[in-house]
Amino acid sequence: MVSKAKRLILSTLGTVLLGFATQASASGEAERPDGWSLLNMTEGVTGVSHSIYDLHMLIFWICVVIGVITFGVMFYSMYAHRKSSGRTPSNFHESTAVEMAWTIIPALILVVMAFPATKGLKDLYDTSEADIDIKITGYQWKWQYEYLGEGVEFISQSSTSQASIYGKAPKSEFYLEEVDKPVVIPVGKKVRFLITAKDVIHAWWVPQLGVKKDAVPGFINETWARADEPGIYRGRCAELCGKGHAFMPIVVNAVPEEEYLAWLAAQKAQAAVEKEAINNTLTFDELMTSGEAAYNRSCASCHGVAGEGIPGAFPALKDSVIALGPVADHLDMVINGSQTNAAMQAFGGQLSEADIAAIITYERNAWGNVPEADKTVQPVDVLKFKQGQ
Amino acid sequence: MAHGPAKGIGRWLFATNHKDIGTMYLWFSFAMFLLGGFFAMVIRAELFEPGMQIIKPEFFNQMTTMHGLIMVFGAIMPAFVGLANWLIPMQIGAPDMALPRMNNLSFWILPFGFALLASTLFMEGGAPNFGWTFYAPLSTTYAPPTVNFFIFGIHIIGASSIMGSINIVSTILNLRAPGMTLMKMPLFAWTWLITAFLLIAVMPVLAGAVTMMLMDINFGTSFFNAAGGGDPVLFQHVFWFFGHPEVYIIIIPAFGVISAIIPTFSRKPLFGYSSMVYATSAIAILSFVVWAHHMFTVGMPLAGELYFMYATLLIAVPTGVKVFNWISTMFRGAITYETPMLFAIAFVILFTLGGFTGLMLAIAPADIQYHDSYFVVAHFHYVMVAGAVFSMTAAVYYWLPKWCGRMYNEALGKTQFWISFIGFNVTFFPQHFLGLAGMPRRYADYSLQFTDWNMVSSVGAFIYGASQLLFLYNVISTIRSGEKTDDPKVWEGAEGLEWTLPTPAPFHTFSTPPDVK
């Protein structure tokens, strides 16, 4: 036990003092510290993240040196000048020279420190001449990615199940850091991120890219990254955005350019297929099955897996006026959001017609709900409703 | 005509005596400290391991919000006002505070403010859940209906602070004993004079911010709503224009306490008294021009970002001066290590560590990684807990014998110190690691690599929490049955007017002004 503890302390010290940081491995998944070895900032995989890391270590060491000197004097004094060693105290209480020195020297250190920090910041702010523009929109509690000029957009949200969060299922390796659809970027290209939000403020943070930027509703912030090596980089929302704040992870998949182009082409093809499929008529069972999945993905975090809602905050859908009433009101609520409660978002721009049709059908018939009329809603009904307004 | 306190509950309800009001402030703030601490225990219990075990995420957010609000506005600020009430008249040779009835009012509205705030926990929709920084639009368009209670609670608490500050400024400027020039005042009076001006300047700004929220929520304005032509970032500018001076409001009186305790137990006058006064004033003035360093990721223009970085770095200079002065006071003294001194030394060490991380956070590019992570949580708990709370604890041990004429149990005091010191560091030191490795703050749940340090942190938190119960026990047993003392000085090295008064301090002191050499 003793030797284990000693080894732990030594390795901890060594790691802290040497500024050890893990590198991305070749296998795609970046190797990351965990357990007791999780101690320091990642060096990351972009020029910006490296310069941030270097600044971090520089200021860290400056603090260590100042700390060693300051505390050294203090601890010496605490030992050597204790009353129990029989001392009589001195009476000095000022010294202009010393006081000037410890005002001017720290000021000079700060001036020296300001130069690399200014350079780093300028670099970080230089979003010019980007190769690719990706618009990122934060929603409660998911991210939407839009590849500007490519016609590709999708929602990316946590794929960790409620069951594993609440301890009813085992937690996977990437618990709360896994999404249904990662954002894909090419290696070696300058990617500009245009970041905004639709509801409250979020912040898009991927440590290994050296990117953190607030997503502010009504404003578009810019930042950028150029990943030097392929890999899967995991990040999180960093600005408190409500109860799902911890549950809207980010996964960035940096791949070689050819792979990126192939992926982009596949996305476009899939979008075309989905557009075609709007006219298909689905059976009740098909709608209910896909509706349950889509409901649990997009609606259950507020309205509950069993449609029970949260009293005082989010209305129940079981036996609700909207779910049982006229289908037009139901479509309006899902597509345009609530006029009186901002927490109910406009899903018209987030979800496909097929998903909205399935969700509405599911909400009208699940948990013992029996609608007055219009048991099912087809994707084409959703499209017509949207076009009609 | 000397007379004693009134009998019964009237003594407290109609109190105008600075000592009684000070006592009420201190007990009230300690009650709030235990309540806010209980919320912290709920938070750390939930974060002990990944997954949601005890509470739901929406309640978790209510806990972090209420913890922050109660600790800042309910525990730390009133505690220092209580200390000011007790000590400032005794330190400057005044018979009482300048405005005793307003003093009564400023205390007695506080319980109502916090009752309003805490009652939201039992209402439909739950308590405020948008963080103690209550960023719009999460706190406006998306807030629970109880936000209105929060707004009026803040108004009441703010009014109390403003009245308390006016009282302190009037007392110090008008009621000093003949010969007690400003530059002869103890540093605690100086630091409170500066703090009071900060409070008078920024509490109305906070009131403005919450009033704009009230308008946005209930009267259809769009101060913070982009869809109506407003700006959510405006909220953050207004909030931090209050918020940054606010964090110095919390720490500056602590500087005064430490500047009293270290010389006493070093048996040597404070080193660099006048530079301490100037450094404190410099910190206070700088606090008005650095607010947006809390907003480095919000999307400010480069020029703004650079300015706020440079200005923030400057604060390190006067702060350094203070630390160097304290250490020089100890240097070549004759130091003893009673409980107040232990807490004061821990303050110097841990506050300096918090200062170092503050310096790191000031480096704007590095802050891109630190911002809103547990690194920030570690940083501000090093300055708020090891700073403000440790100094407050030191102050209670230091002046309690003077207040009640009884000595606390030294062994118990030292025991509480070591449990607090260890518990505090076990709680908050690992949070530096968590933040650097990418764990954001205000997370109800986290991914698996963060498990080990979170467990350590939670264990530390329970130890630290328990140490506060020991503190409560020690204070109560001192008041009830501590060893009696009537030594006016109490401590061999103590200097200042309060130590010329009899022990315990009589109900009325300095009815005639003392001679100040």
What labels describe this entry?
heterodimer; A: Immunoglobulin-like; 3 domains; 5-stranded mixed β-sheet; 11 helices; 41% helix; 15% strand; disordered N terminus; B: 517 residues; Cytochrome C Oxidase, Chain A; two-stranded antiparallel sheet; 15 helices
Q: Could you characterize what this model shows?
A:
With 389 residues, chain A is an alpha+beta fold. Chain A folds into 3 domains: 4-79 and 95-125, no CATH class; 132-273, Cupredoxins -  blue copper proteins (Immunoglobulin-like); 280-386, Cytochrome Bc1 Complex, Chain D, domain 2 (Orthogonal Bundle), CATH 1.10.760.10. Chain A is built from 11 helices and 10 strands. In chain A, strand 2 (142-147) and strand 3 (152-156) form a beta hairpin. In chain A, helix 2 packs antiparallel against helix 3, helix 6 (284-298) packs across helix 10 and helix 10 (353-365) crosses helix 11. The relative contact order of chain A is 0.09. Chain B has 517 residues and is an all-alpha fold. Chain B has one domain (10-500): Cytochrome c oxidase-like, subunit I domain (Cytochrome C Oxidase, Chain A, Up-down Bundle), CATH 1.20.210.10. Chain B contains 15 helices and 2 strands. In chain B, strands 1-2 form a two-stranded antiparallel ribbon. The mean pLDDT of chain B is 96.
The portion of residues assigned to helices of chain B is 55-70%
Count of the domains of chain A: 3
Mean pLDDT of chain A: 89
CATH hierarchy, class of the largest domain in chain A: Mainly Beta
Q: What structural class do the secondary elements of chain B suggest?
A: mainly alpha
Silhouette of chain B: globular
Which quaternary structure do these chains form?
A: heterodimer
> Would you identify the regions of chain A where 5 or more consecutive residues have pLDDT less than 50?
1-8, 13-26
Helix-strand string of chain B: HHHHHHHHHHHHHEHHE
Q: Would you count the extended β strands of chain A for me?
A: 10
CATH uppermost class of chain B: Mainly Alpha
Examine the secondary-structure arrangement and name the CATH architecture of chain B.
Up-down Bundle
Radius of gyration of chain A: 28 Å
Second CATH tier, the architecture of the largest domain in chain A:
Sandwich
- CATH superfamily annotation of chain B: Cytochrome c oxidase-like, subunit I domain
